[in-house]
Amino acid sequence: MKRGRGLVLGALVATACGAAIMAFAQTSAVDEIAKYRAALQDGNPAELWEVRGEGLWRTPRGPKQVSFERCDLGLGPGVVKGAYAQMPRYFADADRVMDLETRLVYCMVSQQGYTEAEAYKNPFGAGNERKSDIEALVAYVTSESRGVRMSVALNHAKEQEAYRLGAKMFVFRGGTHDFSCLTCHGEDGKRIRLQDLPNLTTVEGAQKAYTTWPGYRVSQGEVRSFEWRLYDCFRQQRFPELVYGSDAAIALTMYLARNANGAAFDAPAIKR
Amino acid sequence: MRVRPPVGTWTGLGAAILAAALIGCATAPSDAEVAGRAAAVLKQSFKANGQAGLDRLDQDDTQRLCTLYADKALPSDVAEMIEKLNLASIKWPAGGQWMGDWKNGERIAQEGRGKQFSDDPKGPVGANCYACHQLAPQEVSFGTIGPSLYRFGALRGYNDETRKYAYGKVWNADAYKACSNMPRFGHSQILSQQQVKDLVALLTDPESPVNK
Question: Considering the entire predicted model, what is its pTM?
Answer without folding.
Answer: 0.87
